[in-house]
Design brief:
The chain folds into two domains: 6-136, Four Helix Bundle (Hemerythrin (Met), subunit A) (Up-down Bundle), CATH 1.20.120.420; 142-344, Translation initiation factor eif-2b, domain 2 (Rossmann fold, 3-Layer(aba) Sandwich). It is α/β, with parallel strands linked by helices. The protein has eleven helices and 16 strands.
Length: 346
């Protein structure tokens, strides 16, 4: 990879600013947890796995800066740090997975000094990032087996290195197929209103030298109907126990079109994106974002003032439209309820 999404360096968190891509490759330095939380909320960093890494690193920063003489005071303030992180974005379950993981590490160190607990949290945050790179490469290896040689793969939003610690889930599958020598091409949906496909996915794939065609969201059905799409691969922000999957708004439409045109529709995600506590996708909380994201592009109005706007950031694709769910532990098809539990060992 020719860029780093997020890393811990010199007791600071360094993130590529995804709001500035593709025109500027800018890296921001964060030294306190509130700034990291705002970066998550403001889409400087996005994508479920990357949000999880950022939350872990933000908590480590917060723990470092806590002023406390007693363990009781430290843990009370650490809970506040975690609460700030939890309020950033509601849909991506990796955020809450990372928060709970950091809490467990802190609790496990209660018999240690506060200096030692802070160090434990820093090391755990770095471990979350390193593990994500390995996980995504494993997702890629499994998923590449589903991609035929010379395939034309449609993807929606950005589930690449920018959405993870650096390799990608859906784009990890595409990268792994490319690295295996398969002569694949990619169709990238632009993904309104934040244009993650146009700004981020296309940027990544052009950097990788993978042939990529950018299309607007409403063109997908046209190319599917003409037989120009071999399969679809997308990421996920939360997967319920029955396989229903929340992903960037517009994913559901792509899945329905793929089903109508007999095209395989694959979801690639780490096990940390599974939420087996939810029986189905109807229970997944859906974030609604500011109306200005729909009515404006880079501050320029594209809609009349006063028009009513809805801006859900995600939708839920029912499991019946999903051909397979690709994880670091393998591929699940068919009965997702039992298959997902089996693959997690639950």
């Amino acid at each position: 990879m020719s860029f780093r999404t997020i890393e811990w360096r010199d007791d600071s968190v360094i993130m590529i600013d995804q709001t500035r891509l593709p025109n500027e490759e800018i890296y921001n330095t964060y030294t306190d947890f509130k700034a990291v939380a705002e970066a998550i909320r403001g889409m400087v960093i996005r994508g479920a796995p990357a949000i999880g890494v950022a939350a872990a690193m933000g908590i480590a920063l917060g723990a470092r800066d806590i002023i406390a003489d007693t363990h009781e005071s430290f843990f009370r303030q650490l809970e506040n740090v975690c609460d700030v992180m939890a309020r950033t974005r509601p849909t991506a379950v990796n955020l809450f997975w990372a928060i709970e993981r950091m809490k467990r590490v802190a609790e496990g160190g209660r018999d240690k000094t506060l200096v030692q607990i802070r160090e434990l949290l820093k090391c755990e945050a770095i471990r979350v990032e390193q593990e994500d790179l390995t996980i995504c490469r494993n997702i890629g290896k499994w998923g590449a087996t589903l991609i035929p040689d010379s395939a034309i793969v449609l993807t929606h939003c950005n589930a690449g290195g920018l959405a993870t610690a650096g390799y990608g889930t859906a784009l990890g599958v595409i990268r792994a197929a490319h690295e295996a020598g398969k002569k694949i091409q990619v169709f990238a949906d632009e993904t309104r209103p934040w244009l993650q496909g146009a700004r981020l996915t296309a940027w990544e794939l052009v950097k990788e030298g993978i042939p990529t065609t950018l299309i607007s969201d409403n063109m997908a059905g046209f190319f599917m109907s003409r037989g120009e799409i071999t399969c679809c691969v997308v990421g996920a922000d939360r997967i319920a126990a029955n396989g229903d999957t929340a992903n960037k708004i517009g994913t559901y439409s792509v899945a329905v079109l793929a089903k109508e045109n007999n095209i395989p529709f694959y979801v690639a995600a780490p096990l940390s994106t599974l939420d087996l506590s939810l029986s189905d996708g109807g229970k997944i909380p859906i974030e609604e974002r500011p109306t200005e994201e729909v009515t404006h592009i880079k501050g320029i109005a594209i809609a009349p003032a006063g028009v009513r706007v809805r801006n859900p950031a995600f939708d839920v694709t029912p499991a019946r439209y999903i051909s397979a769910i690709i994880t670091e532990n393998g591929i699940v098809t068919g009965d997702y309820r039992s298959g997902l539990r089996r693959i997690t060992g639950a």
